[in-house]
Amino acid sequence: MNSNAKNSRLYEKLKEDILSGSCQPGFRFPAEIPYAKKLGVSRNTLRTALKWLEEENLIVRGRGKGTFVNPGCGYEKRRRYMLLLDAAPPAPYTEHIIPQIMLGIEQALHDRDIELEHCSYEHLDSMEHNEIMEMIRRRRISGILWKSSAFLGNEKVFLALKSLPVPVVLLYCQPEDYRVTGWAAIPQNTRNAWCEALRYLQGCGHTRIGIVNTDVPGLIRHEFNPEEYARILCSMGLDPDPRLIVTAQLTDRSVEENLSRLFRMQEPPTALLCYSDYWAPAVYRALRKLHLKIPDDIAVMGYCGTPNSAYMNPPLSTVAVGYREIGSNGIRILDEADQWFCPGAPEHSLPPFSPAPYRIIERQSTNRRQMDDKILK
Predict the structure, then answer these.
(1) How far is CA 194 from CA 36, 153, 198, 343, 360, in A?
(2) CB 188 within 8 Å of CB 94
(3) Among the residues of 226-338, which ranges form H helices?
(4) CB contact at 8 A, 300 and 284
(5) CB < 8 Å & 24+ apart, contacts of 123-127
(6) Residues 6 or more apart from 264 whose CB is under 8 A from it?
(7) pTM over cut 0.70
């Protein structure tokens, strides 16, 4: 083990002893040489760890008097986490995600009596490696939530945080970020959730399901290439006709033009699955212009579960991602870090990998009764 890792591990152990109350305020540490021998470390390693603890005001040192747990630090009574966010504004169709995640975070913080500080990625990225490390130690941060994805593994902020003895949980990241970073992760669960939406529509009696996809070339819902998607549809007994997939920008004109082509087919779809709930209002307006009624003539389903989807006319069925649960689960995973984050955790312990929860919300836009009546006729 290199010296930095030894320093960090000892620092984290002594810090945990102070925070847990094993070393009470006012406790006097033994002399350095015998204490280092007892801990099985070098005197330099012990001195480095004590220096870091002193910088956090967790201990006080006096020449000729010794080293003591700070009687007035009071830090052992409350943990402090940091939420790290990108400062760039979100895309219009993702602006609901952070507020919903924050609701879950705030409730979990209240329930567990934990403090939370906010910091932007851009601010940390403007700092030097050692400045980031010193700031985290100085602010007494004992856990980090980071809403980001698509890590390469060579980012400056990533490398700085990775070198700290502080657990990190990634919120709503990509599944591969778990492997790249080695951190705990609550990744997007889009593939399973999208397939669940297809199964739901199939259960409503639909086999020709049109997809209103975003205008990202070559991918369906950012997840499936056309060949893979066709295989999935076939395995479900659904029509793999590639003409059922249309790409549309988030504008009325683009959606209307693409749906017009879709419904000129000899055998048009009986249901539409939207890339996001944000596409659904434009889809509704386009269908009205085409004189198609929802759900009498065509069922419509969204994805992501925005609060506004319940207030559409008719109310929109959707796959609702559990953003609040993502926030509360992030706090829970950090709060249980002693079970998986070294030091203190077994060497074989792996950081948690907990895919984002989701559920089907059935509303009038996919009314099963309407489809049952069509089948009976």
Answers:
(1) 56, 29, 7, 39, 10
(2) no
(3) 226-236, 252-262, 280-289, 323-335
(4) yes
(5) 123/87, 124/84, 124/157, 124/160, 125/155, 125/156, 125/157
(6) none
(7) yes
CATH topology classification for 78-188+324-356: Rossmann fold (3.40.50)
Which DSSP category does 57 fall into? Answer: T
- Please state, in angstroms and rounded to a whole number, the distance separating the CA atoms of residues 219 and 228: 10
Low-confidence ranges of the chain (pLDDT < 70): 1-4, 20-21, 72-78, 87-89, 217-218, 222, 342-348, 368-377
Classified by CATH at the fold level, domain 3-69 comes out as Arc Repressor Mutant, subunit A (1.10.10)
Domain ranges of the chain: 3-69, 78-188+324-356, 190-320+361-376
CATH superfamily placement of domain 190-320+361-376: Response regulator (3.40.50.2300)
Bridge partners, 304 (sequence order): 320
Q: CA angle, 86 as apex, 83 and 90 as ends, to 5°?
A: 120
Q: Token match 């990998």: residue? A: 353
* Number of neighbouring beta carbons within 10 Å of residue 196: 15
Tokens (6 digits) for 289: 């212009």
CA separation for the pair 28, 50 (Å, rounded): 13
What Rg value do the Cα atoms of the chain yield, rounded? 27
What pLDDT, in 10s, does the model give residues 230-272? Answer: 999 999 999 999 999 999 999 999 999 999 999 999 999 999 9
Q: d(Cα 240, Cα 311) in Å, to the nearest integer?
A: 32
Contact 277/248 with Cβ under 8 angstroms?
no
CA-closest candidate to residue 148, choices 60, 71, 84: 84
- Tokens representing 80? 């402090």
Phi, then psi, of 271 in degrees rounded to 5? -150, 150
How much is the pLDDT for 348? 56
Domains 3-69 and 78-188+324-356 share a fold: no
Q: What is the pLDDT of residues 322-338, one digit of tens each?
A: 999 999 999 999 999 88
Question: What is the three-class DSSP state of 308?
Answer: helix
> Which residue(s) pair with 273 in the sheet?
211, 301
How many H helices and E strands in the chain?
14, 13
Q: Does residue 147 contact residue 101 with C-beta atoms inside 8 Å?
A: yes
**Cα 191 versus chain centre, distance:** 15
